[in-house]
Specification:
single chain, 327 residues, mainly alpha, Alpha-lytic protease prodomain-like, Alpha-Beta Plaits, 64% helix, elongated
């Protein structure tokens, strides 16, 4: 099964599960009149909306390239994650609002023992679904699916907080704990919504993924060939599960076109073996110049002008610069 198809199927089941969990939570609220449970139910509405947004974004992201979208439709996943993060923040604000109204109206809880069992079931289902989403999302490089999984697990943590609150209220009869837990959860939800939104905006703005770049550079250093004199102006851009990589690649100037192309193929194979076949590699080749001799490890070079001095290790600082390296 293709990765995009797998992502879509998982997201579809997540959306269906969100609807089921909302029905269970809203039933628990009507049974208990607990503000903490209402807060949890309101977040589930966000889960449903976010589920449909994520479903649509994965459908769009799976479309092939066309004339209007030469890099594909993968950016739709970032837009989905941005919408989801915004909705999570909105849910936190709504919970604060409902808590204030509850304080003013002095509403009390009831039948908490029944609510505990219903909410416990939703917590277990949410966490398991979130775990599956994150696992498959990371494997398939899908931000939309990973965000959905994190959202579900965040929902689980808030649900556990609700369970603790209900248990404390049930055994202590201290009803203001319901409101205190709801306010605490709202701040936690807003913070996590911000982190999802921040990551999605980073993808939309093509912010450098330093962790990915470091993995990429480490792999190149480990398997560097003698003809690979220099690599610079490296950029990695994410389009959903597609990685678009640009770089300048310095090779011996006397290689013919076929020999230079073979070196680029070797570079491409190395990257795809490590990061998968969803790679677009665009390489600009440069011929070596006189000052390249000092960092060139090639021993059988008849064109060498200066002796080798030191092998230059590629690092984050020197591969992202737009200049050929020298001693």
């Amino acid at each position: 099964m293709h990765k995009n198809q797998q992502n879509y199927i998982v997201q579809k089941w997540v959306t269906i599960l969100s609807i089921v969990l909302f029905v269970i939570k809203i039933t628990a609220y009507y049974l208990t009149n607990s503000l903490a449970i209402l807060s949890d139910a309101l977040e589930s509405i966000v889960n449903i909306i976010a589920g449909f947004i994520g479903l649509y974004s994965l459908f769009v992201a799976a479309k092939p390239k066309d004339l209007d979208h030469p890099y594909g439709h993968g950016k739709a996943e970032f837009i989905s994650a941005a919408a989801e993060g915004s909705l999570v923040i909105a849910a936190g604000i709504i919970i604060i609002y409902e808590t204030i109204l509850n304080i003013l109206n002095n509403t009390t809880t009831k039948e908490l023992d029944q609510g505990i069992w219903l909410i416990a079931v939703t917590a277990m289902l949410n966490y398991f679904a979130g775990f599956i989403c994150i696992k498959i999302g990371k494997k398939n490089n899908s931000l939309a699916l990973t965000s959905s999984g994190k959202h579900l697990q965040i929902d689980t943590y808030s649900t556990v907080g609700v369970l603790v609150a209900i248990a404390l209220i049930y055994f202590t009869q201290v009803y203001w704990l319901d409101k205190a837990i709801a306010l605490t959860l709202s701040l936690w939800i807003i913070y996590n919504g911000y982190t999802i939104l921040r990551k999605s905006l980073a993808g939309i703005m093509d912010e450098a993924d330093t962790a990915l770049l470091n993995q990429f550079i480490e792999e190149l250093n480990t398997h560097k060939k003698d003809n690979w004199i220099d690599l610079h102006n490296l950029r990695v851009i994410k389009y959903g599960d597609l990685l678009h990589i640009d770089c300048h690649f310095t090779l011996p100037w006397y290689l013919n076109i076929n020999e230079g192309h073979a070196e680029i193929d070797a570079l491409s194979d190395l990257i795809k073996n490590k990061f998968g076949d969803k790679i677009e590699l665009f390489v600009h080749t440069d011929g070596c110049v006189e000052y390249s001799c000092a960092i060139c490890v090639k021993t059988n070079c008849n064109q060498r002008i200066h002796p080798f001095e030191k092998q230059l290790k590629w690092t984050m600082e020197n591969v992202i610069s737009n200049y050929k390296h020298r001693m």
